[in-house]
């Protein structure tokens, strides 16, 4: 019976069946595919919102920098009321004082001491020569805009990888719970048989104690796996902005490394792998940072040159005796000016700006060199991780079958009294280890494939080294996997 249960579990977990584990809490669970999770993550991602804000800010900076190439035209309309004037009571030789009515002639039309003034004006300014300042600022702003666009693509790629890791992590935790509970059931059965034999004098007390300790250890492991599963599902729900108390049923074909159930990823992994250093978004962003710093250095150096500015002001001014703007005669003022500004002494400000800009350019070039080196290592690491994961996945299949067969033989020998309990416990431990490694091999392989497919757009250093990605094939007891490290295929339901 135990062998039958184990065989069914192994076939369901590793035979490529798409299945859903039973819900562990009340309420109808929500079925969630990986394709749906990828769609839900986009509007729920703060990182994408930050990237969008960065793009919007870069667009604003670009508009602001380019605006200085064009004329600046401003209009003004104003009204002023004189409350007290130095010209009160002063006569200009006419029949009325300066605060009299406005007949459009004589001294009444003079602006001195008039109580009401209306004005309408237009001002125009155009930079004719700025020594390269506008060109440098425009260059820096354009590079900033391109950097922000690349950052948006990089954030989207990172979000895709995060969702894949979280989704597979939740499914992996389901299978680890299933494996732990199966091992616990086997330990319970072994303990029951040992106690029965002890009752008739066929087993020593030591074997009973040993079986009870093994059962208690498996119970502890099952509790730990259940807690890990709870955390894994909470992390997935938070990533997708789903209510924490809503149960989820996840569906995924564990052995389908072509992502047949997820068209988005299936299309992604079909494209040729691009490991070119120059095409990595992180390297391109570093190159754009160099371009931006070169523009800022050009702007800083422009302060040594004269600034040539063309200005023009046009205005109509009227002085009505009352508040009505339609009564007075309006007088026109229009002037055109050409100004040159040349710094003579600034106390070292220009030199300081140049030094800061040169330092920024040197730093940007150094960061680009760093990015190129890290990208080269990161590409090799991703490819090595994929190769190691593929090899581990292929070898784990045979290991599970052999461990399953060995456990069935050990169980039969123990029930027939032909072997010791130690032999049975060792076989059970080997089977549990092989099953856990199989799950981790599937997780590592699928994540490695997605990582390599997104390699040119992912930030640098987002993946682990090949040694940490590839599952360790060992006969030792499986180590506890934290939910932050798991992410794989399978199916399951949130507890």
Structural commentary:
Helices cover 57% and strands 12% of the residues. By secondary structure, the protein is α+β, with helices and mostly antiparallel strands. The strands form two sheets. A four-stranded antiparallel beta sheet has the order 2-3-5-6, with no helix packed on it. It has a three-stranded mixed beta sheet with strand order 1-4-7. The longest helix has 67 residues, at 133-199. Residues 1-26, 96-106 and 463-495 have low confidence and may be disordered.
Largest sheet, spatial ordering of strands: 2-3-5-6
Mean pLDDT: 81
Low-confidence region ranges: 1-26, 96-106, 463-495
CA distance, first residue to last residue: 27 Å
Strand content is: 5-15%
What's the short story on this structure?
With 495 residues, the protein is α+β, with helices and mostly antiparallel strands. It has helices at 2-14, 34-44, 46-66, 133-199, 205-240, 263-270, 281-301, 349-415, 421-453, 466-469, and strands spanning 30-33, 72-81, 116-129, 248-251, 307-318, 331-341, 492-493.
Please tag this protein with its features:
four-stranded antiparallel β-sheet, alpha+beta, disordered C terminus
